[in-house]
Amino acid sequence: MNALRHGLQIGAVVIGRNEEQRLEAGLESFLGNVELIIYVDSGSTDNSLQLAKSLDVETISLDMTIPFTAARARNKGAEFLFEKNPNIKYIQFIDGDCEVQTDWIKKASEFLENNTEYAVVCGRRRERYPEKSVYNQLCDIEWNTPIGDALACGGDLLIRSDAFKQIDGYKNHVIAAEDNEMCFRIREKGWKIRRIDEEMTLHDAAMYSFSQWWKRATRAGYAYANGCVLHGKSKERYMVRENIRILVWGIFLPLLIFVLALINPLFLLLSLIYPLQIIRIGLTRSDVENIKYSWAASTVAGKIPEAIGFLRFWSDKLKNRTAQIIEYK
Q1: Terminus-to-terminus CA distance in the chain, angstroms?
Q2: Cβ(34)–Cβ(77) under 8 Å?
Q3: Which of 21, 27, 146, 230 is the most buried (most CB within 10 A)?
Q4: Measured between alpha carbons, how far is 191 from 229 in angstroms, rounded to an integer?
Q5: What are the residue ranges spanned by the domains of the chain?
Q6: Which residues, including other chains, have CB under 8 Å from residue 97's CB and lie 6 or more apart?
Q7: Residue 243 · residue 228 · CB < 8 Å
């Protein structure tokens, strides 16, 4: 039984940019499961828009003279959704490289119907091709968040329209981790967020190179710095811990080792703290035995590109420069 047969008013907002190869499966996964599908395109140069239109999906083309962010795309989609159907009760957001699992809309909407204190629900996002690269495998591990009450969801989530409107949706200027930031403001309003034990989406990270991993980590560092500026003074000290880790492992220790090595090259031995940290973290991840040290290496080494993103954020802020999205594919 799908969501339409439940009599629920559910809309879908799909955002994308040059996702033609993956978009069709994502849009078709909504057909018959939601009242209305909106595809928001962000300057694609492939046939993404034409593909969406061929499936009779409502489409929006973002004004690309204004700096693009996924947050702005999602807000535009939700705005258009409410214009088309003011009675929409829930919104399912996904990215154009994702496909919704068969029973997700039904299971997620049932949860929100039965648990009125929750504004957002998410499930298990999986990588479509984890076997094709270690970077895809790392993403799949990242998506496997704990089941139960959560602080945030990723880009795939079902949200109550009332809650979305209450916080005025996403912040348009946030170029990454916009979902975490939105979830923080939802929780500040007294709502709860839940990760349920259900299959939600298939995602295609299509990440096959070190440079893609580096850019993605750089984007994360930028997001951590931005999030801390926005809400770091809150009671939960939002993203403060992430910023401290970047400062220690990505900036302070490398600079300290470099300066001391200028005095005496033997101080380069202090850099062994990084492989030791990788071993320590790897030993804690018995749940991903076959890739635990790759995960640990990504976590530790990622502090360097995260530091670059951190510094880039502060450079933009001090120069009053508009943030530009950092894309990895």
Answers
A1: 36
A2: no
A3: 27
A4: 23
A5: 3-207, 226-318
A6: 16, 19, 22, 23, 26, 203, 204, 205, 206
A7: yes
Rg for the chain (alpha carbons), in Å?
21
d(C-alpha 281, C-alpha 180), whole Å:
24
pLDDT digits (tens, 9 = 90+) for 162-171: 999 999 999 9
The one-letter code for the residue type at 308 is: I
- Assigned CATH for 3-207: 3.90.550.10
Helix/strand/coil for 182: helix
Residue 4 has pLDDT above 60, yes or no: no
pLDDT at 128 over 60: yes
In contact, 131 and 52? CB cutoff 8 Å: no
pLDDT at residue 289 in the model: 84
d(C-alpha 95, C-alpha 99), whole Å: 9
Q: Compute the 3-state secondary structure of the chain and give helix, strand, coil in percent, each to the nearest 5.
A: 55, 15, 30
- Cβ–Cβ < 8 Å for 17, 39: no
Going from the C-alpha of 210 to that of each of 71, 142, 282, the distances in angstroms are 26, 17, 20
Give the SS3 label for residue 54.
helix
pLDDT at 301 over 70: yes
Strands 58-61 and 148-149: unpaired
CA distance 238 to 248: 18
DSSP state of 147: S
The full length of the chain comes to 329
- Compute the Cα dihedral for 236, 239, 245, 248 and give only its sign: negative
Express each pLDDT in 134-152 by its tens digit: 999 999 999 999 999 999 9
pTM, rounded to two decimals: 0.92
- Residue 291: pLDDT above 80? yes
Amino acid at 76: K
Q: What are 17-74's pLDDT values in tens digits? A: 988 888 999 999 998 889 999 999 988 889 999 999 999 899 999 988 888 899 999 9
- Could you tell me the two tokens for 287? 């749940």
